[in-house]
């Protein structure tokens, strides 16, 4: 039976399902492929997947640009006061909805808070959610999926059914149900929710690539020579299974940031006084006609951030997948 | 002369540089004649054939010089539409791997019938009748019942018969068979080869048989062209070459065939690897692997020396090679 | 084939119960199902206890779930917050969302596949690069931002569309919301088609088709496209379920009274019967879409049909 690519589209496109689709859409199989046409690849020096990929990436403008944007985002999320010294919560209703002025390049929001300061401080929220959720998803997913792929059997079947269950829940809908009762204004409920619904995606990828790696001749040979299970996993299978997980996780990071903003926009993600682009966009949307700047700046920041991570993942995938060269 | 290839040059523009796949090939085929083109993979034998057929991938491929005269017309000067009409009607090609070369989602009847509907404007019904006739002609049992089957439902030998039927459909005057039996079981190889030879005699077609199997050649070919690194290194009527090769490379090829009458002797292997087409060695391209190489071989490209009527050898030391047997 | 369908159906059963149970637990354990029943005030303890007994909420959760599922199978989805039957809500909401989803799917097919074919055949050319960048942008901008922006530009600034869809939600008013709903999937369809076309364009059977002297158009449409679209069709098939579940955001932006709107209301008012009922149906739609896709796969690819 074919592994239906399709069933991965289960989660709403706005959310976590996206990364998988994107990676799958480009054929995330990362097996080493032979070199150029007519087998003319330079003979001699053996090149590893990773060093090859790195050489490619360094020359790829997409990678450089998205990498620089991400470094910048990480820096300002660690030290937002470097470029915005104000207080994102300080409000003066007299300034509400005002356009840009001296010292306030992006103007004011509906409560009279400085949009520039809020956009800068919102970076931290987005990056924290993205990074923490991705780490959680990647760890949980690759361990569960990897074990299922390696050992197979009943655990594999059970895990497959469990992933089916999670894929059956539209992600925004699940977020509404799960998060609507949470009152905490920290990022952790959102992160927890994304990990809860996101891990099956990585689990599938990890499972698939472990199974592929397991069938490689050299792994079979190692098994025949009596290599222990743990040794095989560490030496032979993990290195091969890691690449697809990294690619999907990078793209997923971008979609998780978008998901947090979507949930916050719907009023169930982060709650005020947390500073989040999603909340700001939601607050600004009723005034879209008269004061669009209040919406456009956080929306722009959100789009650039998500785009940077997706482009990075895209570039990494191209570098690791020689098939389409 | 049915087909004359004159001084053909083909190169591939890759990321690593320009790969010179074909470097001045000359050969000719008359009606009813069989030319066997021999060589290792990467020798340019398939690329030459694809250039003749007009199915070279361009880019990355590029025909950088030469003429392909077919029935006194230079195919390289034809408009794409005129060129298309030559394909299938006047010349046809049989590929190595019939399973991947047939469309997996179309029935064999549709694929055979397409020749008649597209080139001859027949109705689907007539085309179907003709398809069954064709399948009968290549001796596929129960053709009438199997015309609606898909390629994967046939055995390897039967699939290759279908490929042959498709090539013969419009009774072209030239057939190019690119390793037609390599992918088949040894027992089936002879049957398919016999069928091909029989149909060729019946229709008085020219046949270019591309192969690296010298055993097949001896039975069916009239003359042989041996290719190495995109050049023809030896041409000869078929019997002479088995008696006394006039090029060290041909000699190496002949000596590396396992033979029953030499049982127990060590099998010969040509030392070294085929050349990298990005960096073809100067002088005679074969010199790094040649047991007879002298200084002149490293500097001077050998011309095709006339050995006897219909025999040419691109070796500075063809006399010595002939004598040294 | 028949056995395959039966096996797939059997596999769906645990998934159906697993998913609905999960949602049931989320709604009933995390939230307070009677919180919304006494209007805006908190229920006083006596009334609360009475209500709990009345709805069977004092029983263990698994028993509540079984009772609920039992009711569902007899067509009783319970009552919504305003006393309306949940089935009545569904009868008005689902047609609207189905219409919206169909419009989105049509956009995916028409725009996504066309762009994918064009770019797949011209890989590396300016058209290809431009479209690729555009798809990345569409994927990166969250749907709710795309929706708000289109509403601002088309609805408010230019006045081409109504910013808010009327309650009957006629097809012409749903075109822009449908495009918004489709946007991200559309970008995926483009990329998927492009990759699939580019991969298959190098396949041996395409070379054979060219060698047969077929016109380029026929090679592309009859040979290349027919093979390349298999993964695309399956993606679009499963997307039906995902789009219906994901319509919440779009419906909220354009004020469309479909499934997403009702669900959102149900969640805000903590009406568990509405939420669980709608989600159950959505899960069924999703599972059915998956099954159809698997069968479609077999129809499109004879290698699977006869395996």
From TrEMBL, chain A:
What family does this chain come from, according to its entry?
Belongs to the binding-protein-dependent transport system permease family.
Q: Which residues cross the membrane?
A: 62-83, 127-150, 162-181, 241-259, 295-316
Its GO biological process annotations read: transmembrane transport
Is Transport set as a keyword in this record? yes
The entry's protein name is Oligopeptide transport system permease protein
| Residue intervals of the ABC transmembrane type-1 domain | 123-313
Cite the Gene3D superfamilies for this sequence.
MetI-like (1.10.3720.10)
Q: Which domain of life is it from?
A: Bacteria
Look up and give the membrane topology term: Multi-pass membrane protein
User: Where does it live in the cell?
Assistant: Cell membrane
**Gene Ontology, cellular component aspect:** plasma membrane
Name the major location. membrane
- Source organism of the structure: Streptomyces fulvorobeus
- One Pfam family assigned to this protein is BPD_transp_1
- What keyword terms does UniProt attach to this protein? Cell membrane, Membrane, Transmembrane, Transmembrane helix, Transport
UniProtKB/TrEMBL annotation, chain B:
> Transport as a keyword?
yes
Checking Pfam families in the record gives: ABC_tran (PF00005), oligo_HPY (PF08352)
* A GO term for molecular function: ATP hydrolysis activity
Q: Name one GO biological process term.
A: peptide transport
**What family is this protein classified in?**
Belongs to the ABC transporter superfamily.
NCBIfam families xrefs: oligo_HPY (TIGR01727)
Q: What is the designated name of this protein?
A: ABC transporter ATP-binding protein
Query: What is the taxonomic lineage of the source species?
Result: Bacteria, Bacillati, Actinomycetota, Actinomycetes, Kitasatosporales
TrEMBL record, chain C:
Q: How does it sit in the membrane?
A: Multi-pass membrane protein
Give the family, as the similarity comment puts it: Belongs to the binding-protein-dependent transport system permease family.
Q: Chief subcellular site? A: membrane
Superkingdom, taxonomy of origin? Bacteria
What's an example GO BP annotation here?
transmembrane transport
Q: Does Electron transport count among this protein's keywords?
A: no
The protein's UniProt keywords, in alphabetical order, are: Cell membrane, Membrane, Transmembrane, Transmembrane helix, Transport
Q: Which residues form the ABC transmembrane type-1 domain?
A: 94-297
- Kindly list the residue ranges recorded as spanning the membrane: 12-31, 96-119, 131-154, 174-192, 224-249, 275-300
Please name the CDD domains in this protein's record: TM_PBP2
Repeat listed as a keyword: no
UniProt cross-references to Gene3D superfamilies, sorted A to Z: MetI-like
Q: What is this protein called?
A: ABC transporter permease
Q: Name one GO cellular component term.
A: plasma membrane
Compartment annotation: Cell membrane
């Amino acid at each position: 039976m074919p592994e239906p690519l399709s069933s991965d589209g289960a989660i709403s496109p706005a959310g976590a399902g996206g990364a998988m689709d994107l990676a799958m859409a480009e054929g995330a199989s990362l097996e080493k492929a032979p070199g150029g046409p007519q087998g003319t690849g330079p003979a001699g020096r053996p090149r590893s997947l990773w060093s090859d990929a790195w050489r490619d990436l360094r020359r790829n403008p997409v990678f450089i640009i998205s990498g620089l944007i991400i470094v910048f985002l990480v820096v300002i999320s660690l030290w937002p006061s470097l470029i915005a010294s104000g207080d994102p919560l300080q409000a003066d209703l007299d300034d509400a909805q005002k356009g840009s002025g001296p010292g306030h390049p992006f103007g004011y929001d509906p409560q009279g808070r400085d949009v520039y300061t809020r956009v800068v401080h919102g970076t931290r929220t987005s990056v924290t959610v993205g990074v923490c959720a991705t780490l959680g998803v990647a760890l949980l997913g690759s361990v569960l999926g990897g074990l299922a792929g390696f050992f197979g059997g009943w655990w594999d079947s059970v895990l497959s059914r469990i992933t089916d269950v999670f894929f059956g829940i539209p992600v925004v809908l699940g977020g509404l149900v799960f998060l609507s009762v949470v009152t905490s204004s920290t990022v952790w409920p959102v992160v927890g929710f994304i990990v809860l619904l996101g891990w099956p995606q990585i689990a599938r990828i990890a499972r698939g690539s472990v199974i592929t790696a397991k069938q490689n001749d050299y792994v079979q040979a190692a098994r025949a020579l009596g290599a222990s299970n743990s040794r095989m996993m560490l030496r032979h299978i993990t290195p091969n299974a890691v690449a697809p997980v990294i690619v999907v996780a990078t793209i997923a990071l971008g979609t998780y940031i978008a998901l947090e903003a979507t949930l916050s926009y719907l009023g169930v993600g982060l709650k005020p006084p947390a500073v989040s682009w999603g909340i700001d966009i939601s607050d600004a949307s009723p005034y879209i006609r008269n004061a669009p700047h209040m919406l456009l700046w956080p929306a722009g920041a959100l789009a650039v951030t998500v785009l940077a991570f997706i482009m990075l993942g895209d570039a990494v995938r191209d570098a690791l997948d020689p098939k389409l060269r | 002369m049915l087909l004359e290839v004159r001084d053909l040059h083909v190169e591939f523009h890759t990321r690593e540089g320009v790969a010179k796949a074909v470097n001045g090939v000359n050969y000719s085929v008359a009606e009813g004649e069989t030319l066997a083109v021999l060589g290792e993979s990467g020798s340019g034998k398939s690329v030459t054939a694809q250039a003749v057929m007009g199915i070279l991938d361009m880019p990355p491929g590029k025909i950088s010089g030469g003429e392909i005269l077919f029935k006194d017309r230079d195919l390289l000067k034809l408009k794409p539409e005129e060129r298309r009409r030559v394909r299938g009607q006047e010349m046809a090609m049989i590929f190595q791997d019939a399973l991947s070369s047939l469309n997996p989602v179309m029935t064999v009847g549709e694929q055979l019938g397409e020749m008649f509907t597209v080139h001859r404007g027949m109705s689907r019904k007539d085309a179907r009748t003709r398809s069954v006739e064709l399948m009968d002609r290549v001796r596929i049992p129960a053709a009438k019942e199997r015309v609606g089957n898909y390629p994967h439902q046939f055995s390897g030998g039967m699939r290759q018969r279908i490929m042959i039927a498709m090539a013969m459909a419009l009774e072209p005057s030239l057939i190019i068979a690119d390793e037609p039996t390599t992918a088949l079981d040894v027992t089936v190889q002879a049957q398919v080869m016999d069928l091909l030879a029989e149909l060729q005699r019946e229709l008085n077609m020219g046949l270019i048989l591309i192969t690296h199997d010298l055993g097949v050649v001896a039975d069916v070919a009239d003359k042989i062209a041996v290719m190495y690194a995109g050049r023809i290194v030896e041409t000869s009527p078929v019997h002479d070459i088995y008696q006394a090769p006039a090029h060290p490379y041909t000699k190496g090829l002949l000596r590396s065939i396992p033979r029953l009458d030499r049982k127990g002797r060590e099998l010969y292997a040509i030392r070294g690897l085929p050349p990298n087409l990005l960096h073809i060695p100067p002088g005679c391209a074969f010199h790094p692997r040649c047991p007879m190489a002298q200084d002149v071989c490293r500097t001077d490209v050998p011309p095709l020396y006339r050995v006897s009527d219909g025999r040419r050898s691109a070796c500075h030391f063809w006399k010595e090679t002939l004598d040294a047997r | 084939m028949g056995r395959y369908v039966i096996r797939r159906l059997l596999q769906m059963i645990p998934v159906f119960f697993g998913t609905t149970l999960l949602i049931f637990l989320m709604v009933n354990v995390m939230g307070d199902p009677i919180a919304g029943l006494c209007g805006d005030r908190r229920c006083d303890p006596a009334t609360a206890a009475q209500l709990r007994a009345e709805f069977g909420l004092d029983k263990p959760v698994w028993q509540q779930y079984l009772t609920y599922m039992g009711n569902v199978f007899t067509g009783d989805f319970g009552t919504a917050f305003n006393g309306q039957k949940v089935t009545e809500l569904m009868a008005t909401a689902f047609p609207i969302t189905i219409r919206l989803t169909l419009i989105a799917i049509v956009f995916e097919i028409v725009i996504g596949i066309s762009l994918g074919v064009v770019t797949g055949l011209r890989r590396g050319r300016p058209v290809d690069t431009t479209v690729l960048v555009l798809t990345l942008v569409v994927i990166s901008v969250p749907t709710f931002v795309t929706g708000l922006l289109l509403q601002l530009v088309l609805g408010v600034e230019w006045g081409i569309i109504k910013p808010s869809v009327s309650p009957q939600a006629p097809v012409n008013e749903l075109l822009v919301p449908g495009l918004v709903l489709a946007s991200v999937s559309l970008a995926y369809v483009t990329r998927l088609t492009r990759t699939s076309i580019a991969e298959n364009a190098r396949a041996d059977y395409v070379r054979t088709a060219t060698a047969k002297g077929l016109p380029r158009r026929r090679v592309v449409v009859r040979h290349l496209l027919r093979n390349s679209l298999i993964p695309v069709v399956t993606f679009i098939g499963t997307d039906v379920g995902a789009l219906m579940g994901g319509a919440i955001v779009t419906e909220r932006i354009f004020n469309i009274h479909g499934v997403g709107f009702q669900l959102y209301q149900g969640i805000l008012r903590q009406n568990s019967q509405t939420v669980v009922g709608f989600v159950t149906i959505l899960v069924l739609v999703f599972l059915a879409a998956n099954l159809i896709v698997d069968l479609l796969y077999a129809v499109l690819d004879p290698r699977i049909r006869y395996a």
